[in-house]
UniProtKB/TrEMBL annotation:
The keyword Manganese does not apply. It comes from the Bacteria. SUPFAM superfamilies: 2Fe-2S ferredoxin-like. Keywords: 2Fe-2S, Electron transport, Iron, Iron-sulfur, Metal-binding, Transport. This is 2Fe-2S iron-sulfur cluster-binding protein. The keyword Ribonucleoprotein does not apply. Residues 5-97 form the 2Fe-2S ferredoxin-type domain. The lineage of its organism: Bacteria, Bacillati, Cyanobacteriota, Cyanophyceae, Nodosilineales. Its cofactor is [2Fe-2S] cluster. CDD domains: fer2. PROSITE patterns: 2FE2S_FER_1, 2FE2S_FER_2.
């Protein structure tokens, strides 16, 4: 049985808000687009972080979000192109390149980047 959740997306750069009905077995980005939402994206496969959002409330499931470090997932970021809703959600778009900078900005130049992703510190 498919559960549906209400997902509210605040697009901070455009000042627009979307309220979407999202099934638990479809990616949020794809469903949002089908419902007319205009949200940022690029690769659509969890690698580039263009579609990253901050989760203000609720839970997502994002097993394929390989572009997002475990650290940032824990801090409440999600990649909408590969995220499934697991509850009603409220999210907002990141600042431009925010996630990329958080992830790579402090690592590049320190010799800690291997294979394109920061190593876990622990
Ligand atoms: S569009 Fe690239 S990670 Fe989602």
């Amino acid at each position: 049985m498919t559960d549906f959740y209400t997902v509210r997306v605040h697009h901070r750069q455009k000042g627009t808000d979307y309220t979407l009905k999202v099934p638990d077995n479809r990616y949020i980005l794809q469903t949002a687009e089908n419902q007319g939402a205009d949200l940022p994206f690029a690769c659509r496969n969890g690698a580039c972080t263009s579609c990253a959002v901050r989760i203000l409330s609720g839970e997502v499931h994002q097993p394929e979000a390989m572009g997002l470090s475990p650290d940032l997932r824990q801090q409440g970021y999600a990649l909408l192109c590969v995220s499934y809703a697991r509850s009603d959600l409220e999210v907002e778009t990141q600042d431009e390149d925010e996630v990329y900078e958080l992830q790579f900005g402090r690592y590049f130049g320190k010799g800690k980047v291997r294979f394109g992703l920061p190593l876990d510190e622990d």
